[in-house]
Amino acid sequence: MTTSEQVRDSPEGWVADHIRRYVETGGAEGHEWRPGVFTLLLTTRGRRSGDLRRTALIYGQDGDAYLVVASRGGSPRHPAWYLNLLADPEVTVQVGPDTFRARARTATPPEKPRLWRAMTSVWPAYDEYQTKTDREIPVVVLERI
């Protein structure tokens, strides 16, 4: 990914506003979304368009890695950002003022239960989202490169 390319932000109203504030303030606003709940900005490359796409996601940590959940609120379909990173796992991440390249991967079956618990401790609604869908909601591990 190059930094000179135009990035398209999530088109959803409140998410787009959240991302705009996050970017404009270098993470000073938006990093803490709700008390004790932090978000990062994930930029993926569109699997069909090739365009860079940015969205805000709740995150947790596992050592030096960042964790995000491809829940889409329990929708039967994976979120577009997850499908994009499956096609191209090299992503850009912004956590507060820190922006870096990372490689994204889906948590393996042996590590997923532990990472799922870590993420439901951050956002308990993930358990509810899983009950709404037959698809297994992935936990994504973002490792700095």
Automatic annotation (TrEMBL):
GO MF annotation, one: oxidoreductase activity
Superkingdom of this protein's organism: Bacteria
GO CC, any one term: plasma membrane
Alphabetized Gene3D superfamilies for the sequence: Electron Transport, Fmn-binding Protein, Chain A
Catalyses which reaction(s): oxidized coenzyme F420-(gamma-L-Glu)(n) + a quinol + H(+) = reduced coenzyme F420-(gamma-L-Glu)(n) + a quinone
Family classification: Belongs to the F420H(2)-dependent quinone reductase family.
Annotated NCBIfam families: hi_GC_TIGR00026
Name assigned to this protein: Deazaflavin-dependent oxidoreductase, nitroreductase family
